[in-house]
Amino acid sequence: MNDLISIDLGNSNPHVLYFKNGKKSWTKNLNDFLKSWSCHDTTPIILTSVRKNFELPKGLLKNAIYPQKNFKHGKFFDMQVNYSETLGGDRLIQAYYLYKNSELPCLLIDSGTFTKIDYVSSAGFLGGHIFPGVHTFLNTYRAGDNLPAIHFKDMDSQWQSGMLPQNTKDAIEKSCHLYHSMLIQHFLKKFPNKKIILSGGQADYIANFIETENYEISPDLIHLAHLFLYQQHYATEKKS
Fold first, then answer.
1. What separation in angstroms does the CA of 44 have from each of 24, 40, 52, 229?
2. Residue 143: strand, helix, or coil
3. Which runs of E-coded beta strand occur in the chain?
4. pLDDT averaged over the chain?
5. N-terminal to C-terminal alpha carbon distance within the chain
6. In the prediction, which pLDDT does 240 show?
7. pLDDT per residue over 174-187, tens digit each?
8. For 104-151, what is each residue's pLDDT tens digit?
């Protein structure tokens, strides 16, 4: 059976994807899912969380699979991990999926609350960086009493780096664009001609700054990784 409930407890958008016969069936935010979930549901659950505290039904927690628990002594299953055990489960699990399924080496850019840029090769997970994500970057301006609140959904996506801003709204928006442009260009120069995988809620925005055709956007990457992990390492255990 390839039915699976995949839960991503991210910092800002906890949500659930349901696989029916190995195919994406539906996606719900976590609260809507919990309203309809029953402890009598026998569908396997796999869960990754970057949160320290998050209340979930005891029946769900008891039966859920936590793949990041297999990260021990510098290895996650057969992937070498050159990072301490503080590595977030989302970064670990997505990197493993790419390690087993993607063209290598590759850069994984996962942009949500934070933008994580990780490097994966045939040698395993080699490390990476954590930067403020788009919303987090914009929220820093709230420390200024006289600065306007800028929301990502209202931002002007068109910009030219050579034009100087001439009002405060433009100054903030263009600074956000410039920050992300310089960030992405730094890694494109450091790791030239490498496959780039974009995931996370701001993947489409980050794609604006990639000046190469060798990239792909995978918005459901963590859920695909969950399905792969379940099929490869847990489905047999459930059957037995």
1. 15, 12, 23, 12
2. helix
3. 4-9, 15-20, 23-29, 45-49, 71-72, 75-76, 79-80, 106-111, 114-121, 124-132, 195-199, 215-217
4. 92
5. 13
6. 45
7. 999 999 999 999 99
8. 999 999 999 999 999 999 999 999 999 999 999 999 999 999 999 998
One-letter amino acid at 159 equals W
pLDDT, tens digit, 9 for 90 and up, residues 6-51: 999 988 889 999 999 999 999 999 999 999 998 888 999 999 999 8
Neighbours of 115 (CB within 10 A): 22
Which residue is associated with the tokens 């029946």? Answer: 59
Contact 141, 150 (CB under 8 A): yes
Q: How many CB atoms lie within 10 A of CB 165?
A: 14
71: burial class by Cβ within 10 Å (0-12, 13-18, 19+)?
A: buried
- Residue 25, classified by CB atoms within 10 Å of its CB into exposed (0-12), middle (13-18) or buried (19+), is exposed
Full-model pTM:
0.92
- Sketch out the chain's domains with CATH numbers: 87-222 (3.30.420.40)
Band (157; pLDDT cuts 50, 70, 90): low
Buried b (16+ CB within 10 A) or exposed e, 196-230: bbbbbbbbebbbebbeeeebbbbeebbbbbbbebb
